[in-house]
Design brief:
The chain is α/β, with parallel strands linked by helices. 35% of the residues lie in helices and 25% in strands. It has 13 helices and 17 strands. The chain has a 7-stranded mixed sheet, covered by helices on one side. Strands 7-2-1-11-17 form a 5-stranded parallel sheet. The protein has a 3-stranded antiparallel sheet with strand order 8-9-10. β1, α1 and β2 form a beta-alpha-beta unit. The C terminus is likely disordered.
Length: 382
């Protein structure tokens, strides 16, 4: 069996690793260019329109354990964040505590830097990943699937998995009535080096913090790797190059952001949001790495649909995009990848995809709903 995967994001690469470890031939097709292409703007590659720090929950951590070879799983653990107190806090704009929830650390790996995880997931895949391949058409039949790419190229496999994100061409081919829903809100992401924030209060290292303003919310989470990526790679995966990641505080302003995409304008907007808030919050945004600022729409999904039984599957944001609440989207994509790996390596492809779709539909629809509520969108529409 040969599996084609559209999209080299976290979900698609986790699936590729799991299938490859089980002896299944895989080919991953990514419309973007290789991370190693230094001619590109690496800031954009780091962000990928999705943020910097990802919380990894039990489902995500277990999926990585099941799909990654041992040395890459250990590398993921080594480069994850130093665990904090596991506290989820909501503060007022004067830093008064409105609520606190002691979530606990739960597992030894609480968060990762998105670019580092993606580079780890690429480890060992080599020629199985084809960059610069944008899927334009999907043609399934009784025996397999033909995929066409921009520029006239095409390929054929026994199974196609759409891991091609929120604007998925694969989803549009099999479930055209399940397009994502734009909530109308926007998230402006930023990153401030911890070196620029001496004497930052300890509360910002305890977990996840939300600051509730009248017209916008500011989310904050620190990232400090257990082991510098280069050192960890040298010890656990020699030859795998990981981009250095200075410690940082990720922040995100959620609200009615401007239409501008230029980082300076978005940073100016964020500064305007917090200008009358506590001086510590003003400092956090002011000292940001301005070119790393970007904006992304907040979308959600209708209930995960049924699609025709066959040889095409869809995972992650391609089928169940959700608000960025606690890394739910990334963790659900990893969970999808582990489940689909298990199914495809135990039964006939058609039966495997049908079983995967039924199980994924149930848990993913529930996670989308919880993320919607956690983001306060239900109240916002009342």
């Amino acid at each position: 069996m040969r599996v084609l995967i559209a999209g080299a994001g976290i979900g698609g690469l986790c699936l590729a690793q799991g299938l490859r470890a089980a002896g299944v031939r895989v080919s991953v097709f990514e419309r973007g260019c290789a991370l190693e292409n230094r001619a590109l703007d690496n800031r954009g590659l780091e962000a990928r329109g999705q943020g910097y720090r990802i919380h990894i929950d039990d489902h995500g951590g277990e999926a990585l354990r099941r799909c990654l070879p041992e040395h890459l799983y250990r590398l993921y653990l080594a480069t994850s964040a130093r665990p904090g107190a596991g506290r989820i806090s909501t503060l007022g704009t004067d830093l008064s505590v409105l609520s606190t929830f002691e979530a606990g650390t739960g597992s030894p790996h609480s968060a990762v830097n998105r670019l580092t995880l993606r580079q780890i997931l690429l480890g060992g895949l080599g020629a199985d990943v084809h960059f610069g391949h944008q899927v334009t058409a999907v043609e399934p039949d009784a025996d397999g699937v033909r995929v066409r790419f921009a520029g006239g190229r095409e390929d054929r496999g026994d199974v196609l998995v759409g891991a091609d994100g929120v604007n998925s061409v694969v989803r549009a081919a099999v479930a055209p009535d399940s397009a994502p829903i734009d909530t109308g809100l926007r998230c402006v992401y930023g990153r401030t080096p911890l070196a620029a924030l001496p004497d930052l209060p300890a509360r910002f290292f305890d977990g996840f913090t939300a600051v509730a303003g009248d017209t916008a919310t500011l989310a904050l989470a620190a990232f400090r790797a257990r082991t510098p990526p280069a050192d960890a790679a040298a010890a656990l995966a020699p030859g795998l190059a990981l981009t250095p990641v200075p410690d940082y505080l990720m922040w995100a302003v959620v609200g009615a952001a401007p239409r501008e995409r230029e980082p300076v304008a978005l940073h100016r907007f964020a500064q305007g949001v917090v200008r009358r808030w506590h001086p510590e919050l003003v400092r956090i945004v002011r000292e940001a790495d301005v070119p790393a600022t970007f904006r992304t729409p907040i979308r959600t999904s209708p209930p995960v649909p049924r699609w025709p039984a066959g040889r095409v599957a869809v995972l992650g944001d391609a089928i169940h995009v959700m608000p960025p609440s606690g890394g739910a989207g990334a963790n659900t994509a990893l969970r999808d990848a582990a489940l689909l790996t298990e199914r495809l390596t135990t039964v006939d492809p058609r039966e495997a995809i049908a079983a995967y779709a039924d199980e994924m539909r149930e848990y993913a629809t529930a996670v989308v709903h919880r993320s919607y509520l956690a983001a306060g969108l239900a109240r916002g529409r009342e």
